[in-house]
Design goal:
88 residues; mainly alpha; 3 helices
């Protein structure tokens, strides 16, 4: 999970896409841009996916994604999720 740190920021559409790809394909999280990362749990382990510090970082990065793309984040996120579901 070390790809993003407290020093990370999202400032471009490409960075938004990379961040979402990381969430979907590396972390295996079926996410919604409006949801708090503190609420995600692993289906198999029944444990939280992230601790508070990690979740706060990802929440901040998601806020930055909204600053960059506005409502387009929904389209970017859904495209990645649908693509992932088609490959499984």
């Amino acid at each position: 999970m070390a790809k993003y740190t407290q020093d990370s920021h999202i400032t471009t559409v490409e960075e938004v896409k990379s961040f979402f790809d990381h969430i979907v394909n590396e972390l295996n999280i079926n996410f919604h841009p409006d949801d708090d990362f503190k609420k995600y749990t692993s289906y198999k382990a029944h444990e939280r996916t992230m601790d508070d510090e990690q979740a706060e970082l990802y929440n901040r990065l998601m806020d930055e994604a909204f600053d960059v793309c506005g409502d387009e984040v929904y389209e970017i996120g859904s495209e990645l999720l649908f693509k992932r579901l088609q490959t499984e």
